[in-house]
Amino acid sequence: METPACTEAADIEQPFDVFARACPSRETLEHVTGRWGSLTVGALREGPCRFNELRRRVEGVSEKMLSQTLHALERDGIVNREAQPTNPPRVDYELTPLGVEVADRLLALIHCLEGNMTAVLGARESYDATRGGR
């Protein structure tokens, strides 16, 4: 059974369906749940950050990837970029109201995973033992 195409936003019941191939919500979901997107949104939940502060907080992200991630999240209305007219220029990033809502839900998932890592690691060990490891 094929999933129906994404309907117009004016449709009250369910205007978007992430399971539909052409639905634009898929792209936003990818931006938010990708490795760098989720870590960036989670880090910004702690408060506004400058680019390099954010880069230090999200260990392992390259300058290029963080820049691309912030651009995508800004385009989706999740992050606000505010450039200060100073010398040198100062740019701050913070979550929009939508971004705060997304971050709160994302952090609940992150905390759930962190709190259950002992079980996850045990499951991995068991799986690897019975299936020959990785």
Automatic annotation (TrEMBL):
InterPro entries: HTH_HxlR (IPR002577), WH-like_DNA-bd_sf (IPR036388), WH_DNA-bd_sf (IPR036390)
Gene3D superfamilies: Winged helix-like DNA-binding domain superfamily/Winged helix DNA-binding domain
Residues covered by the HTH hxlR-type domain: 23-121
Superkingdom field: Bacteria
Keywords of the record: DNA-binding, Transcription, Transcription regulation
Keyword Transcription regulation among UniProt keywords: yes
Protein name: HxlR family transcriptional regulator
Organism: Streptomyces spororaveus
